[in-house]
Write a structure and sequence with these properties.
Blueprint (H helix, E strand, L loop, with lengths): L4 H8 L5 E3 L4 E4 L15 E4 L9 E4 L7 E3 L2 H6 L5 H15 L22 H14 L13 E2 L2 H7 L9 H10 E5 L5 E6 L10 E5 L12 E2 L12 E6 L2 H10 L10 E5 L5 H12 L3 E7 L6 H11 L4 E10 L14 E5 L2
Parallel strand pairs: 11-12, 11-13, 13-14
Antiparallel strand pairs: 1-2, 2-3, 3-4, 4-5, 6-7, 7-8, 8-9, 10-12, 14-15
Bound molecules: zinc ion (ZN).
The site of zinc ion (ZN) has 8 residues, from loops.
Length: 346
């Protein structure tokens, strides 16, 4: 039987995970229905140590859900697993136990895309916009560290992509007026319209780089960082509404900004805070979380109290800090235009 260590490691990180009895079964939170709201016990029962030739069965005991079946890589993805080796390990296990080939499973993260920011006139203008906005001195090549792609068409060309996600005319507009942020799974280019008149018709356009969009796709922007799950201190999750606000906080917030070790940085870019937060905790297998929200001024504190109520059963919120910028509407600004005002909710 194939070794299942990676799959088991991932399962161990799920909310409310508990081994039962002799360790062959476990319970955890149901990734379909979310489980019981007011219980520390997960509603999902899952085989943790399958016998030779046995698939990993699961069953949710919540009457209104009752989902059951054989654990597949798609289920792991749904729980937030994005490690290719873990997904492949499960695919191989299933192939070995059911005797069917595993080539039907297509991983969502299929390839790493190359980024290129050429030093041409349009890109120079976009770069100047970024630097003015954030008070930075980035060069075109430094933008790669933040997964910022200035030109849609350069990106498509260098990656040999032959199909556009929208009409050519609309893509022309996107290419001219948007700055791209590569999404967490590298399957979307989150295009932020920076024109004064919003020529694309909206602030964010989620551009599917290749293949078809799917309902559960994650379209958030994350600043690349390493997370150490063995670190005894709980991880910090930093969230903002938009990519610029996130970058401003990251670059200019001092000790709680990029200097802070073991922290995740993510921008909703049109998604809901709740979904972004739930996704990140699952993706990284985080149980204890210190939450920082770098808020837009217009979003009132009651909204975040509501957010806490919605997620508190899904993770252990060690602390919750909501930061506002006293000097502007959000954190997408130069350091001199940022004055942090913090409300501690937990
Ligand atoms: Zn369920």
């Amino acid at each position: 039987m194939a070794d299942l260590d990676l799959v088991q490691d991932f399962l161990r990180g799920l909310p409310k995970f508990q081994l039962t009895g002799d360790g062959t079964w476990a319970t955890c939170e149901c990734w379909v229905c979310g489980g019981y709201e007011d219980s520390s016990q997960g509603s999902m029962s899952i085989k943790f140590q399958p016998e030779d030739g046995e698939v990993i069965g699961y069953n949710c005991f919540r009457a209104s859900c009752g989902v059951h079946g054989m654990l597949r890589p798609e289920d792991l993805e749904r729980m937030g697993c994005m490690d290719p080796n873990t997904l492949i390990q499960l695919a191989n296990h299933n192939a070995a136990t059911s005797g069917k080939p595993s080539n039907k499973f297509i991983m969502r993260k299929q390839r790493d895309f190359t980024m290129v920011n050429l030093n041409n006139e349009t890109n120079q203008l976009k770069l100047a916009y970024i630097n003015k906005r954030l008070g930075t001195k980035f060069t075109t090549s430094e933008l790669r560290d933040y997964k910022i792609q200035l030109s849609l068409y350069d990106f498509i060309r260098i990656n040999n992509i032959h199909q556009l996600a929208y009409s050519e005319r609309y893509c022309d507009v996107l290419n001219k007026w948007c700055i791209g942020f590569v999404s967490a799974y590298q399957d979307y280019l989150i295009l932020r319209d920076i024109s004064k008149k919003e020529f694309t018709g909206k602030r964010y356009t989620q551009y599917r780089i290749m293949g078809k969009s799917e309902k559960g796709d994650t379209k958030i922007y994350t600043i690349p960082r390493n997370i150490d799950l063995l670190d005894p201190h709980p991880a910090d999750i930093n969230l903002a509404e938009g990519a610029f606000s996130l970058l401003g906080a990251y670059l200019h917030a001092g000790d709680v900004g990029f200097h802070h070790p073991n922290s995740v940085w993510a921008a909703n870019c049109g998604s809901q805070y709740r979904n972004t937060l739930m996704h990140l905790t699952r993706q990284y297998g985080l149980l204890d979380v210190c939450l920082h929200v770098w808020s837009d001024s217009e979003i009132k504190i009651e909204k975040y109290e509501q957010l806490i109520r919605e997620v508190k059963d899904h993770m252990n919120l060690v602390s919750v800090q909501i930061h506002y910028n006293e000097r502007a509407e959000d954190f997408g600004h130069a350091k001199k235009d940022i004055g942090i005002y913090t409300i501690q909710l937990k």
